Amino acid sequence: MPRFAAHMTGINGDRIMTIRDIIISCCSLLPLAAGADTLIHAGRVIDGVGERPGTEMTIRIDGGQIVDVQRGYTTPGQQDTLIDLKDRTVLPGLMDMHVHLTGEYSQDDRLNDFIMNEADYAFDAAKYAKRTLEAGFTVVRNVGDSFNVTVALREAIDGGDIPGPMIITAAKGLSSTGGHGDPSNGWANHIKGDPGPIDGVVNGVEDARKAVRQRYKDGADWIKITATGGVLSVARSGQNPQFTEEELRAIVDTAADYGMRVAAHAHGTEGMKRAVNAGVASIEHGTYMDDEVMRLMKQNGTYYVPTILAGNWVAQQAKVEGFFPELVRPKAAAIGPIIQGTFAKAYDAGVPIVFGTDTGVSAHGDNAQEFALMVEGGMPPMEAIKAATSVAARFLDIDDSYGTLERGKRADIIAVSDNPLDNIRVLENVTFVMKGGEVFKQL
Ligand SMILES: [Zn+2]
C-alpha cells in the first residue's frame, strides 16, 4: 500500500487524497474484486502440505500470486482466464538445490576451459535455464558456476528478459589449491598459474574471509565450498579433506556476517565431519557419510542434498572407454554407485533431506529423474515431492512465498498427466509450467 501511505503522510507534497483515491487504494487491497484473474481447474492437487491429494479444485491467481484455492470448479467471471487442467495432477513448481547452469559435462569438458569465453558460458546458461524451467523447476540453487555468469542470469530472469527458474546462486565455488574446484587442476605447468581467493582458491583463514567477501561483492546469495575431493576434477583423490577446520570456520562465520549460508560438497567422512561441525547448511553428495556424520547432521539441522542422479550418471559413463580422463575414471566407477545406498541409510536415520541433482553433470532438463532414484532408495513419493517443494522452500528460507499451493503464495504451478503417487516417473514429463502467474509451457 505504498501509494495509500504516501498520500496519508503528505509525502507527495500538494496532492490531497480524494474519495476516488481512497476507493482505488482500497480496491487494490482486495484482489478478489479486481476482475481479470486466472483460474486453474485442477483435477488432482498435490499442494506440498497435505498427505493426500485433493480432487476437483480451483486455484485462483492474481498479480502473480495464488489468491484462493477452492473446492470444486468455480465458474470464471467474464474478465477471467480459465486454464483447464481437469485431466492433470497439479503441483507447486519444483525446486532443485544443486545445479550448475553454466555447463553440461561432456568429453570436451577440459578443452572448453581453453576455447570458451564468458559470453559463451552465458548463452549456454540461458539455454539451460529455459530447459530447466520447462522441466517444471521454477526455483534452483546454483552451487558453482563460471565467471559469475549465474549472477547476471539471475537478474535477467528476474527482470523478465529471458525465461528461466528463479536462481539462488553461490557464483564461483571455493576450493583450496589442487582441491576439487581449483580451476587449473590438470592443466600444464606453464599455464597453471596460482589462482587465489578471487578465483575461488583459498589457503588459510585470511584467504577464506577474502573469498567470501568477494562473493558478496560479486552478488552471490550463498557460498559453495568443496570440503573434500570430487569425482570429476582431474586429481587423484575423490574424498580427502581439503580445508582445515580453521578455514571452514572462517568461511562459515564470514558468510554469516553477510547473511549467506554455506553448501559443502563432500564425499569423504573426515571432510564432512569438519564441515558439519563448522556449521555448513548442507552436505552435497555425502557419499561416505557414516553414522557419526548422520548424528551430527541431525543434531545441527544440516540438510543432505543427495544428487543420486549424478552418482548414477558418472558410474554409467565410467564404463565408456576414453570418456573420462584416466585420473577421473576409477573415482567415477567407485563413488557413483554408493550414493543411492547412502541416501537410503540417511533417510532411515532421519537426516533432513532436500532435493538436489547436480544437474550439469547429467543433462539439464533431466532433473526430475532424481525422484525415481529417491523412491527406489526408500522414500515415499509424497515425501520426495515435498523434498522438492515445501521442504526446499523452508531450507532456502523462502517458504513465506514459495513451495506450496496455498493462498498468498507465488503462483509457481506445474502439472503432469498422471498421478505421481502411483508412478513417480510422470514428473519427468511436465506438461504445464506457470511461474509467477505467467504460463511458460502448456501441452
Ligand atoms: Zn555439483
User: Low-confidence spans: pLDDT under 50, at least 5 residues?
Assistant: 1-33
| Overall shape | globular
- Provide the list of bound ligands, each named once: zinc ion
Number of helices: 16
Structural class: alpha/beta
Helix content: 25-40%
Separation, N- and C-terminal Cα atoms: 38 Å
**What's the gyration radius in Å?**
23 Å
The tally of strands reads 14
Main β-sheet description: 7 strands, mixed
Structure description:
The protein has helices at 2-9, 19-28, 109-115, 118-134, 149-158, 189-192, 205-218, 245-257, 269-278, 291-300, 308-317, 329-335, 338-349, 369-376, 381-387, 390-396; strands at 38-45, 54-62, 65-71, 81-92, 94-99, 137-142, 166-169, 223-226, 262-266, 282-285, 303-305, 413-416, 430-435, 438-442. Helix 5 (149-158) links the parallel strand 6 and strand 7. Helix content is 35%, strand content 19%. The chain is an alpha/beta fold and 443 residues long. A seven-stranded mixed β-sheet has the order 3-2-1-4-12-13-14, with no helix packed on it. A four-stranded parallel β-sheet has the order 8-9-10-11. The protein has 16 helices and 14 strands. Helix 7 runs parallel beside helix 8 (245-257), helix 9 (269-278) packs parallel to helix 10 (291-300) and helix 11 crosses helix 12. The structure holds zinc ion (ZN). Zinc ion is lined by residues 98, 100, 143-144, 358.
